[in-house]
């Protein structure tokens, strides 16, 4: 049963955890508002942080907001809070992505599903995107199964690429990276979300220290945020020869599916973090419609590709900046 009004410290902790989620170019395209009278926390898309070149449908924006929503659910479970979530409650207001009703409940009503979510909480602040090489050690099968189960709980499919499919997807990633570099508008949009830490203290975007090294073999799957620019002193190293890539997909391809995909993605990433598995993304082909539709496995694949995830053992990656909570949370009477 939902009872009591939540204090500001608890609300701040919830939203700080939520906004630790990954988002496209670390744009953090979300806004939260809490109404004390109804004990509801609303999640809105911040369309000022959309990317019309790389993400004209806002699919990627929705995935990022879905990841933030999963973190919010994990944080609420950790704090012993009850919550009831409604996705896209107002069809006439598509930027209103979710309404979450929050309250305090007796410990005796705690459910196994809440326990499973709460167990993910230590991973929220430890999860970082790693654009560094991983070693060639294979992820054990039992851990792979846990990733698939994490996605399934949130309504998505997760599968590691078969060897033949992997080669196809690697080619698509390289093709998409080339397309990006030949598109001045996309290159400019990406550059607008990179941050030079010698001249600014960033609160969003990708700081230069998180670019990672260049791949000496030119086969890296991670996006090179340096683009066509050259950074003095940036090293070139060999990345893994056969990256362990997985495809996360959903049966549908509408806004609700994108939000569910984001929740599934973050649940996989937090599970990976708890098992000391590092992660990054290869979103480039997803941003080109003519490449995205052929990402699925031609033999076994179904559904709509929502994310390509690179997983493995290696550096966890540096912390990237987050906007202050007072910039993304409004508390109403």
Q: Which features characterize this protein?
A:
333 residues, 32% helix, globular
Topology at a glance:
Blueprint: H1 8-18, E1 30-35, E2 40-45, H2 59-78, E3 81-87, E4 96-104, H3 112-118, H4 141-153, E5 157-160, H5 163-181, H6 184-191, E6 194-195, E7 206-207, E8 214-215, E9 236-237, E10 244-250, H7 255-274, E11 278-281, H8 289-292, E12 304-312, H9 325-328, E13 329-332
Parallel strand pairs: 1-13, 6-7, 8-9
Antiparallel strand pairs: 1-2, 2-4, 3-4, 5-10, 10-12, 11-12
Overall morphology: globular
Biggest beta sheet attributes: 5 strands, mixed
Q: Count the helices. How many?
A: 9
Annotation, overall tally of beta strands: 13
Indicate the multimeric state.
Answer: single chain
Query: N-to-C SSE series?
Result: HEEHEEHHEHHEEEEEHEHEHE
Q: Work out the strand percent.
A: 15-25%
Q: What average pLDDT do the residues reach? A: 93
Q: Uncertain regions: pLDDT < 50 for 5+ in a row?
A: none
State the distance separating the first and last CA atoms. 22 Å
Q: Structural class, from secondary structure content?
A: alpha/beta
Q: Numbering strands along the chain, what is their spatial order in the largest sheet?
A: 3-4-2-1-13
Helical proportion?
25-40%
Radius of gyration: 19 Å
């Amino acid at each position: 049963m939902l009872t009591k009004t939540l204090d500001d410290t608890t609300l701040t902790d919830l939203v700080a955890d939520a906004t630790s989620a990954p988002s496209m170019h670390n744009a953090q395209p979300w806004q939260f508002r809490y109404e004390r009278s109804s004990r509801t926390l609303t999640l809105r898309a911040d369309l000022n942080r959309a990317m019309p070149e790389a993400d004209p449908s806002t699919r990627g924006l929705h995935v990022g907001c879905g990841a933030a929503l999963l973190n919010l659910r994990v944080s609420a479970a950790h704090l012993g809070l009850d919550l009831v979530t409604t996705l896209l409650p107002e069809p006439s207001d598509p930027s209103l992505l979710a309404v979450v009703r929050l309250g305090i409940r007796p410990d005796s009503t705690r459910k196994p599903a809440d326990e499973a979510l709460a167990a993910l909480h230590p991973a929220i602040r430890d999860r970082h995107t790693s654009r560094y090489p991983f070693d060639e050690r294979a992820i054990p099968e039992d851990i792979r199964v846990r990733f698939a189960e994490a996605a399934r709980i949130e309504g998505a499919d997760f599968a590691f690429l078969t060897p033949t499919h992997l080669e196809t997807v690697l080619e698509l990633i390289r093709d998409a990276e080339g397309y990006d570099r030949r598109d001045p508008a996309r290159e400019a949009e990406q550059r607008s979300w990179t941050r030079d830490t010698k001249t600014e203290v960033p609160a969003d975007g990708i700081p230069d220290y998180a670019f990672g090294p260049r791949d000496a073999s030119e086969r890296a799957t991670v996006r090179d945020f340096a683009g066509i620019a050259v950074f003095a002193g940036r090293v070139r190293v060999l990345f893994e020869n056969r990256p362990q890539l997985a495809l996360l997909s959903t049966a549908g391809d509408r806004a609700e599916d994108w939000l569910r995909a984001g929740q599934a993605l973050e649940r996989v990433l937090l599970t990976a973090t708890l098992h000391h598995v590092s992660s990054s993304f290869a979103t480039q082909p997803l941003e080109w419609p003519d490449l995205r539709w052929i990402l699925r496995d031609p033999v076994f694949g179904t559904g709509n590709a929502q994310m390509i995830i690179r997983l493995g053992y290696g550096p966890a990656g540096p912390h990237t900046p987050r906007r202050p909570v007072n910039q993304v949370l409004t508390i109403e009477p």
